[in-house]
Structures are given as structure tokens and as C-alpha cells.
Amino acid sequence: MVSAVVFLVLLVLYIIFSNLIIPQTRHALEDKAVTIARTIALMPLLSEGLSEGDSKGIQAYTSKITRRNDILFVVVMDMNSIRYSHPDASKVGLPFVGGGQEAALRGQESISEGTGTLGNSLRAFVPVYDGRGHQLGVVVAGLSMDRVERLVRQNEWTIIAILVSGALLGAGGAFVLARRIKQMMFGMEPADISKLLQERSAMLESIREGIIAIDQEGRITLINMEAHRLLKAAGITGAVVNRQIADYWPELRLEHVLASGEGRQDQELELGGISLLVSSLPVRVDGEIAGAIATFRDKTELEVLAERLSGISVYADALRAGAHEFMNKLHVIMGMTHMGLYDELQQYILGTASNYQKEIGAITRQIKDPVMAGFLLGKLSRARESGIELLLAEECYLPEPEDPQVIHELITIAGNLLDNAMEALGGSGPGEHGRGEHNRGEHNSKQIELAFHYEKGRLLCEVSDNGPGIPEALREQIFAQGFSSKGEHRGIGLYLVRKSVDKLQGHLHIAANDGPGTTFIVDVPYAAKGEENL
């Protein structure tokens, strides 16, 4: 490809030079002949000799001019075309041979090619006048056409030599430059670079995080579609690339990352009413800071994802509890079978089935949503394993919601509150609220009561336990993310409860109990399926 381009450039240059320089060589020789002829025509010696018919002085003078100017001949003729000078003195007095003097005899300068006694020549004809302006004759200065063609050929070879030298230098420079560029591009060919850029663009546009990159001067060099979307939602629009990041998004403070070389992780920024989590890092090339990059995502989207994961973990926990209780019952049945206690086994199975049917019946009568009903069955099994009695209030009622998403938020709320209650009573739930260790001697049994009360588009959810309670000083702190008295990496459950309550635009508070224990009360809007809320 490069060779073809070089060849094409050289061909164009050769055509240009051939059409400019070579004609200029011929024009230069023609101008030389005309200049010599004009100079001779102005000499008084010629006008005097032509007037008096004396050719000796003219012959001697033109012979000197011919030798000193390296031309083929200088011929002077009168108005009858009779020579007064010639390189061959024997030709003096004879008519001019070769023609072309007609225009000059009429007083006009002319240039032409012709063949005379000295061969083929390029001739310049100039009229000769006396002091009164009367034409006396013509001066002819001639150059050998062989010499003209030789000079033209020399120029052609000069042009060729220049172009060949340029081609060699260009090829050598192109080779060195190509090697240098290839080293800078890590040995990749243009096709590889193109593929890499396409893959990079596809990856940048496919990820769910906004990306902005800047150079050393703080100018934006790259921004992906997700970044455009988030910034547009925040009210920032217009051309982006090559703008200063400090003018486009000053709160990002990427120029400080350039100056310090230190990145920042998960920084929360408010932009046009949107809460963003931003991470920024310097970009280093060969150990030097060449720019900086920032990645960011809508914090609300991350919170939704966290809540979904929390809901999934609650479902999985309920299923594990149910499976564990089922395995325990199978072990009892297997042991009684091996011992041959068939009557006792029959009574055990009947009692277990009766209790299970009673639980299912109570839950299905009071809890109309099948997802919440299945969830509570799992919690009942887990409470029994932990030696805790989980009671569903007799007046409890939860209709099926108009929006299924509400149930997922309620499961997050009820699930985390039940887990905290089990933890407070000494069960195995992942409690968060920092109650003291339960004194088993204070109560005959560990109880948790769950109640749902629906009325006129509002739903109350109450979770009560007979544990040690929560100190008054901690009641505002327990909902903060990360707060827990149970060790590190805890303090998430009640924080998620508060987030879900806020999302449902409800209220959450802790009731003041007369005796031991704690009661959480959640009040949220709730649209029941098939009902109109006025």
C-alpha cells in the first residue's frame, strides 16, 4: 500500500516537472538566442556595414561573438537576404539558406527551427535599423538543435535522479517511521488497532457505569453513553469532548486526582438531584500520570439491587429453615421405624400433620398473598428450631396487594425484624440492634408475635418479642448503617428496614413497652387488590 502511494506521488511529480522544467529549458535557450541577436542588432558597426555594403567588419565582429557566447552561428543579412557574415567565410555574399527570415524582413522578431548549411538549428531573427529607423537587414543567432536536445535530456535525467533519490529517502523514512509507530503500538498492525478500538468502544458502551476520562491538561477525551444518560438526567447537556472537566463538572474534582496522583473510591456526589457513587483514579503511562478516569453510577440503582439481594437472602434463609426442619422430622421417623415403635410413629405423624395443617390453615386464612404466606411458613420452622414460639396474631390480616413489588418490601421489613427478635431471644438470626444477651431465667418461654392490620388503604405491621428490650439511648442509632453490638460486618438489617419503609413512604417507630421486650411498629400505605382507595 505504501509502495503504491510512493509510486503514484513520484509519477505525478515527474509529469509536473516534465511539463514545467523541460519547457523552461527550451525557453531559456530561445531567450539566450534572442538576447544575443538583439545585442548585435544594436551595434553601430552593423548599421554602418549594411549601409556601406562592407561585410569585413561585420564578419570579424560576429565571429568573436559566436566564439564567446558558445552558439552555433551569427548571420547578418541585408534586405535581400544576402549574408554579410557566416561562420564559414566562403558563404559570405551568398543568399541565406533555411528560410524563416520573412517576418524579420518585415520588421518583426521571430524564433523558428530550420536546417541550413550548418545543420538543424534553433534560430532567433531580429531586425537591424539605422539611426533614422529605416530597416537595413536582419541578425540571425542560431543554436544547434543537438545541443538543445542534449540539455533537455540532461534536465530529464536530473529530474529522474531527484525523484529516485526522493523515493529512496521516502522509502527509508517510511520504513523507520513504520517501525517506530509499530513499537509505540505494541507491535500491532492497523487491522489489530482497528479491532481493538471497536472492542473497546463496544465494552465502554455495554457496561452499566458512566465513564469520563481526561488528559494531563484536564480536557475530556472520552465519555460513554451511560455517562451521557446520567449527566443528561442531571440536567448537564451540550458538547463534551475537549471541554475542561472543571467547567463541565467541577464537583468531580478530577484535577486534584491529576495533581496528587491519588484516587478516591465510592465518593457520594449530588448532581442535579441525582445521588451518584463516584470512583476516580489516575491513569499512569510508564510511571507518569497521563490523565485520570472517573466511573460513576446512580446510587438509587445500587440500593435497589442491594434490596433485591436482601430479599433473595431472606427467601433462601426461609427455605433452608424449612428443609432443616423437614430433615429433622425424617430422622425421627427413621429412628422410630428402626425401633419398631409403629403406634408411636403413627401418633407422631398424625400430630405433626395436624400441627402443620393448622399452621397452613391459619396462615392462608390470614395472609392472602402466597409469597408472604410461604415466607412466614419458613420463619415458623426456623423459630421452632431455635426454641422460639412465633405467633401470628388472631386478628392478623394481610390482603393481596395491587402492586406485587410492595410484598418484596414487606418481606424485607418483616424478615429483618423477625431475625432481630430471634437474635434478642438467643436464637440464630442475624440480629442488629444491640440488645443485651437474654437471661434465660427471666421468662418461661421465648415468644415473638407478628401482626398485620389492614384498614382503609393503610397497613400496620407489628413485631413484638419478650426479650431484654432496647436501651432508650440506642433507639435512634440502631437504624444507622453498620451500627451493631454483635461485631464487625453487621448492622445491615434494620438499615434495610428503614430504607424499605422510606421507599413505601411509611413510618417506623419503637413502641414503649411496660414490661420487658420490644415492639416495632411499621405503618405504610397499602393498596389491596380489587379495592379502590378513596
TrEMBL record:
Domain Histidine kinase residues, every copy: 409-528
GO biological process: regulation of DNA-templated transcription
Domain of life assignment: Bacteria
Localization of this protein: Cell membrane
GO MF annotations in UniProt: ATP binding; phosphorelay sensor kinase activity
Membrane spanning stretches: 157-178
Entry membrane topology: Multi-pass membrane protein
GO CC, alphabetical: plasma membrane
Keyword ATP-binding: yes
Keyword Membrane appears in the UniProt entry: yes
Protein name: histidine kinase
Organism encoding this protein: Paenibacillus borealis
Lineage per the UniProt record: Bacteria, Bacillati, Bacillota, Bacilli, Bacillales
